[in-house]
Design a protein that fits this description.
This protein has helices at 13-27, 40-46, 52-59, 80-87, 134-149, 165-181, 190-199, 211-221, 262-274, 278-293, 307-316; strands at 3-9, 32-35, 63-68, 92-99, 102-109, 119-121, 126-128, 154-159, 184-189, 206-209, 232-236, 241-245. It is an alpha/beta fold. The protein folds into 2 domains: 1-90 and 237-318, Isopropylmalate Dehydrogenase; 92-230, Isopropylmalate Dehydrogenase, CATH 3.40.718.10. It has a 10-stranded mixed beta sheet, with helices on both faces. Strands 6-7 form a two-stranded antiparallel ribbon. Helix 1 (13-27) runs parallel beside helix 9, helix 5 (134-149) crosses helix 6 (165-181) and helix 10 (278-293) packs across helix 11. The radius of gyration is 19 Å and the shape is globular. The model has no long low-confidence stretch (mean pLDDT 95). It binds adenosine-5'-triphosphate (ATP) and magnesium ion.
């Protein structure tokens, strides 16, 4: 029995999440599903993008299926996703990237590094503190090694240890953990790593890196796949996990039935893998492939199908 909190959010979030939810319900009609209202629209209506009550509900969730949230350029508005990551301590951000001849898992540290949130402004400069702690590095390193053990047992450590003390610290801890786990490693400077992943994706298995480097690397790696509408991600904590498409709320296409629901549906595949149901996860992926092969695609993939039609087609293949 799992408690699943469903947060569609803004823009195309409420359009793509229903398709994903139907797929999840197909496998687990017995689970508890709790919808929550949060985000920019919620902020405009209630003055609060993430109420205390909603946060408490999220904290009690085993699994969270998250749509997307519009981040307005209003200084009074604080990012909901960042707050959730922090409050729930979702320390590992996972981005699978796979296709013909490659299958990569990017594991990004999600709570510290340059996104430590420790910032201040002085008279003639602004500072952001890059924090790399032993505990933070060790847990992400162990997590990445755990993933590598279940895959091809290879870990690449993306770093800039030649310039940054904080990265040299991160690198040492990752190497220690990899050695303990019996995982083969290679170290790569993040700048050349980004290029090499794009040129030779087949060389990589699991890649672990610090927060901002992981952010940049994952977006660059999106180039290897079919675009924003196709990519899922997971944010993993100690006892819970949040799954969200990589894309944002895409206000330009919202409300028109044009949004590609595949990224959201792939979130369900990740979720099923997370709870140990790999065969179901593979089944979802196959259903997606069949749907695309049948030409049932939204306009971003060159088709004419609507969000709902794609969702229904995927479901029909399960
Ligand atoms: P936000 O401020 O929420 O990040 P955004 O305008 O940056 O919104 P994104 O969702 O990040 O929008 O995506 C950028 C563009 O990619 C959108 O303008 C949209 O046209 C396209 N896009 C994103 N997601 C999808 C999707 N699921 N299906 C089709 N097109 C998409
Ligand atoms: Mg965006």
């Amino acid at each position: 029995m799992k408690r699943v909190v469903v947060a569609p959010g803004d823009g195309i979030g409420p359009e793509v999440i229903p398709s994903a939810l139907e797929v999840l319900r197909f496998f687990h009609p017995e689970w508890e599903y709790i919808p929550v209202y949060l985000g920019y629209e919620c902020w405009k209506r209630t003055g609060d993008a993430l109420s205390q009550r909603t946060l408490e509900t999220l904290k009690k969730a085993d699994l969270i299926l998250f749509g997307a949230i519009t981040t307005p350029p209003d200084p009074k508005y604080h990012s909901v996703v960042l707050r959730i990551r922090k409050e729930l301590d979702l320390y590992a951000n996972l981005r699978p990237v796979f296709g013909e001849g490659f299958d990569i898992l990017i594991v990004r540290e999600n709570t510290e590094g340059l996104y430590s949130g420790i910032e201040w402004q002085e008279k003639d400069r602004a500072c952001t503190l890059r924090v790399v702690s032993e505990a933070g590095s060790r847990r992400i390193a162990r997590f990445a090694c755990g993933c590598a053990k279940r895959r091809r047992r290879h870990l690449t450590i993306g770093n800039k240890a030649n310039v940054l003390k904080s990265d040299s610290y991160f690198l040492d801890i990752c190497m220690e953990e990899a050695e303990k786990a019996g995982i083969s490693i290679d170290k790569k400077y993040i700048d050349s790593l980004v290029l090499d992943v794009l040129q030779h994706p087949g060389r990589y298995d699991v890649i672990v890196t610090t927060n901002i480097f992981g952010d940049i690397l994952s977006d660059a790696a999106a180039f290897l796949e079919g675009g924003l509408g196709m990519l899922p991600s997971a944010n993993i904590g100690r006892h819970q996990a949040l799954f969200e498409p990589v894309h944002g709320s895409a206000p330009d296409i919202a409300g028109k039935g044009l949004a590609n629901p595949i990224a959201a549906i792939r979130c369900v595949s990740l979720l099923l893998k997370y709870v140990g149901e790999k065969p179901s996860a593979i089944e979802v992926e196959k259903a997606i492939q069949k749907t695309i092969a049948d030409g049932i695609k939204t306009p971003d993939l060159g088709g004419t199908a609507t969000t709902e039609e794609v969702g229904r087609a995927v479901l029909s293949h399960l």
